[in-house]
Amino acid sequence: MHHISVHNKSNHDQEFEVHGFNNNKNIIIKPGATAVFDAPDGASGAVIALHDGHEGEQAEITKNGFGGNDFIDLSNIMGAGGNMTVQQVGEPLTRKGDPTFMQDLNKAWHKTGEAEKKSLKDCVHINAKGDVVRIDAIKNFPQLEKFVRSFADGKTYIGVGAWGGSPGVGSDNKQSSAAHGDKDILITYSDGDATPVQPPHLAHRFSQKLIVHTTGSPTHNNNPGIHLHNKSTKPCTYFFYDNISNGTGTAIPNFTHPTTSTTLAPNTHTFIPLPPTFKGRVQRTTLLPATWAEFQLDASNDHSAHGDISLEQGCDGAATIAATDGSGLKNGFEEDVLKGAPEGARVRRSDGVVCLGSTVGNWMGRPNGAAAEWERRVLGVGKVYIEGGNGVGDVRSRDRRLEVVFY
Question: Among residues 359, 334, 331, 333, which one has the least CA distance to residue 345?
């Protein structure tokens, strides 16, 4: 099951009308918050921003349509009062919509002559300062369509398109082009720039890679890799992500393309051999928030494995990382940090699992200060990365192997 995330970048509550998804129920999203709902394959519908009860910009979505692709577009046919974009998660080249539509509209409006403004007076609504705050349905006003095309043609769906015997306008028809396969959908709303706030690697699109699912090996046979343990009470699938790039003390993580996965029954373990060049992480599921066990296996300066536990992208349970070369080095935690956590620190992941929120933020929302404060209170400093920085002990293993335990 895929999901639709609707993120509100504005500083006010924003209501959305939902058709075809979320049981056709409207949603109101708090500033900086994200609503997530199911998007079954084959479903079609729209998420429409409401402005004083009037329909405005809308994201139109068909999941897993022709050829197994999603079809998405951002339409202003019904009007506008804010800025919105829609895209597949991790696929910025699929993005549709003008992220600064209202700003572009106002620039055009203030350059427009009085005669044209008079022709638009019944469908363009301005405030006391003379700025446009909302426009009515473009489909009902040919003069409004002409005006909007002057600044937004090719950026958003403006006219009725190829429909009911009409050939439509080519720039509109292109807005309905297929996306890349069947994936989660991200809608971003803003009064300012509706470009999604996302990690640096998502500024580029990477080809989908095959995920190799393995049962692992009972022994390491002198190979580099991870001794992986599931000490929870449920079966779990773990995913390994190789970083997009690495620098001295820095890395751009990979959020969308795991390379390897394995499923472990409760209280079982396996060894996952990995190439010595691997630098990345292992986590439960492919979702966020999640606890990350970060590691590299063959550092250039000492040819040793190094690792740590990070809660920067959230926490879905305890984890430890330890050397396997006999040094006894170990870090992480075994405590149930979700127990007793304040409501503001907790978020419900798209699979229904309650987690602690991301302390640094990502494309789904802002940093969760309550989660960071709670983790510092319960775990102190030195065990895990909470908000980056330093002071967390490095776990070094000279045999190019590490032991990772998820609880």
Answer: 359
pTM of the entire structure?
Answer: 0.54
Nearest of 224, 36, 77 to residue 161 by alpha carbon: 77
- Report the alpha-carbon distance of residue 217 to residue 135 in Å, rounded: 62
- Cβ neighbors of 159 (< 8 A, separation 6 or more) are 77, 138, 139, 145, 168, 169, 172
Place of tokens 């993120």: 7
Is residue 406 within 8 Å of 284, Cβ to Cβ? yes
132-162 per-position pLDDT tens digit: 999 999 989 999 999 999 999 999 999 765 4
Whole-angstrom CA distances from 358 to 3, 53, 90, 349, 367 are 19, 33, 18, 11, 6
Residue corresponding to tokens 């990365």: 385
The three-class DSSP label of residue 389 is coil
The values of phi and psi at residue 101, to 5°, are -55, -50
Please give the residue that has the higher pLDDT: either 211 or 399: 399
The Cα 125–Cα 387 span in angstroms is 44
Q: CA 86, CA 59: separation in Å to the nearest integer?
A: 6
Closest CA to 9 of 194, 210, 200: 194
Residue 173 pLDDT exceeds 80: no
- Rama region for 272: left / alpha / beta (φ>0; ψ in -120 to 50; rest): beta
d(CA 330, CA 404): 10
Under the phi-then-psi rule, with left for phi > 0, alpha for psi from -120 to 50, and beta for the rest, what region is 249?
A: left
Backbone angles phi, psi at 235, to 5 degrees: -60, 150
Gap between the Cα atoms of 41 and 2, Å rounded: 8
196: cis peptide before it, omega within 30°? Answer: no
Closest CA to 374 of 385, 362, 386: 386
Pairing of strands 212-213, 260-264: parallel
The letter for the amino acid at 147 is F
What count of residues does the chain have?
A: 407
